[in-house]
Specification:
Two copies of one chain form a homodimer. Chain A folds into two domains: 4-58 and 156-308, Rossmann fold (3-Layer(aba) Sandwich), CATH 3.40.50.1100; 60-150, Rossmann fold (3-Layer(aba) Sandwich). Chain A has 14 helices and ten strands. Chain A has helices at 12-22, 35-41, 59-68, 72-77, 86-98, 112-120, 132-146, 157-173, 188-200, 216-223, 245-254, 263-276, 283-294, 296-299, and strands at residues 31-32, 44-49, 79-82, 102-107, 124-128, 149-150, 179-183, 205-211, 257-261, 303-308. In chain A, helix 1 (12-22) crosses helix 3 and helix 1 packs across helix 8. The longest helix of chain A has 17 residues, at 157-173. The radius of gyration of chain A is 18 Å and the shape is globular. The A-B interface holds A 30, 32, 34-36, 51-52, 54, 56, 271, 274-275, 277-281, 311, 315-316, 318, 320-321 and B 30, 32, 34-36, 51-52, 54, 56, 271, 274-275, 277-281, 311, 315-316, 318, 320-321.
């Protein structure tokens, strides 16, 4: 499953190329603010709403960059990935827009709502058991059979360059930001943020926010090498995956700090965001605000960009309703 | 309680003045779209998200226009109104920004969450019994005691001119709209929409959307005179009030048609908007989409502006979760 695309660190030129390439296929998402949340935190918060992408997540940026960057010969064979979440959805969406095949390996235990969305966008699902060995074996079989180009959910340089366009928009939309904070799982969004800001705004602080119960990036950051957890349990289901070599490069070189929050703090921050910003967003997106509330001295008085990563939530089952 | 401000039809010059006056105090709200909802309806829908106003509703436009239009002598005595909902909240918010008193008469049965928000913004609540006679007697006492300027929730020309700035923004943000649709209760938003569009885009169709179970505007429109219901019961709690003379002027002269939807259709439209547009909005705001889904021939192929009026929802009690 190793792909030569996985082993290259993307450059800022890749970001500029991605920005032009994906413009027709993504939304330039709005930035929202709330006097109430500013009062609560003492900071000036600017929420970049990637939940307003058509398929509901920032991952449409990296997925579109990969899909629309393929030459026609590669494109005819389509793309392939393994994911139980937003990357599967967004890759299917991007492939659908280009009219090429998309094969996705998903654990049979993945939520039906997410499988339905993959199918709605034209993706073909092959189910595997919910284990790493089954996923890798099944994916190898699917890729061999279809010849689809492997687009890794976050370690792929095309994906990182695509995600990097989010903060490129943000600093164009909001002047004078002093810090940006985003959730961290595998590190695709944070890596893209580092890539853009280290080039366009080198003084800006970059914070990653992580659930305490899936704090492998935090521990990696403190230890100075990648620590991967086996099966972390957290409500922030988008943040369970470990760092890989390309994302570790950015995290270890450019991130200011990694902050963590408990499950209860995440749910509280999620509910107050829904209430005062009036947006539907996933638990993962609430981790940054939870850490801002928890670390007021770090953010007080600063203009802070907060990246809201996605909004694909099961509306029948909200964590604050028992 | 009659106020001379109530008896004047506002003009488009009033709208332009309101636009300048309230600019520093409101958000120019973003317009969102969804390929999924467009596919579902066959129309090109542009959602103007007034739920993203700081106090959560378009009513901050009219309230700010009234509050910031007062001369200093009037302003010193503050403003007063009766409302159990978003007008109370938004008038308190606007008065708080100007630093003047705001007295609100609210039924003792109004939701605690809304009372809390009024107080957070600095409004002073006097409770009444949930009846028209108690409300009017209590309000007369409060107004006599405080001398506060009465700002009617929707019949006040300053309020209508303020609400009219919403569609002024919308037609600046989206080119080539062929129709606009908004919910109708007392008719403040629809009247403002009529006022702006009849001046700036006279060919554009204007639809009002109303719950079947509170269809007094629909019946008034068909009958040619105001019909007021006593106590309609609908989940769209913002839409229970009747038309008055100023809003009837606009509705009877400029509205293309009034469309209605059942409670079930409203709840369904609310849930799919939360799911696919990923915004938190009130049941009232779902009535337009519900009527668009129900009347596909009226909207198919058209570019339609949909005004999302507010987002103050009790997140612990969503209508699709039993």
């Amino acid at each position: 499953m190793k792909d030569m695309n996985e082993t290259r660190i993307p450059t800022f030129d890749d970001v500029l190329a991605a920005h032009e390439r994906i413009k027709p296929h993504i939304n330039r998402t709005p930035v929202l603010k709330s006097e109430y949340l500013n009062g609560l935190t003492g900071a000036d918060l600017y929420f970049k709403c990637e939940n307003f992408q058509e398929p509901g997540a920032f991952k449409v940026r990296g997925a579109s960059n990969a899909v629309f960057g393929l030459d026609d010969e590669q494109a005819a064979k389509g793309v392939a990935t393994h994911s139980s979440g937003n990357h599967a959805l967004c890759l299917s969406y991007a492939a659908g827009r280009r009219g090429i095949p998309c094969n996705v390996v998903m654990p049979r235990t993945a939520p039906e709502a997410k499988k339905d969305a993959v199918r709605r966008y034209g993706g073909v699902i092959t189910e595997c058991e919910p284990s790493t060995s089954s996923r890798e074996a099944t994916f190898a079989e699917v890729q061999a059979r279809t010849g689809g180009e492997f687009v890794h959910p976050y370690n792929d340089p095309r994906v990182i360059a695509g995600q990097a366009t989010c903060s490129l928009e943000l600093i164009d939309q909001i002047d004078g930001l002093e810090a940006v904070i985003a959730p961290i799982g595998g590190g695709g969004m944070i890596s893209g943020t580092c890539l853009t800001l280290s080039n366009k705004a080198p003084g800006m602080e970059i914070y990653a926010a992580e659930p305490e119960q899936a704090d492998d990036a935090y521990r990696s950051f403190k230890a100075g090498h990648i620590i991967a957890d086996d099966a972390p349990v957290t409500i922030a289901d988008g943040l369970k995956v470990p760092l890989k070599e390309n994302t570790w490069h950015f995290v270890s070189n450019y991130v200011t700090d990694i902050l963590t929050a408990s499950e209860e703090e995440i749910i509280d921050a999620m509910k107050i965001t829904w209430k005062y910003l009036r947006i539907v967003m996933e638990p993962s997106c609430a981790v940054p605000l939870a850490t801002i509330i928890k670390n007021p001295d770090t953010f007080r008085g600063k203009r802070v960009g907060v990246i809201v990563t996605g909004g694909n939530v099961d509306l029948d089952k909200l964590p604050w309703i028992k």
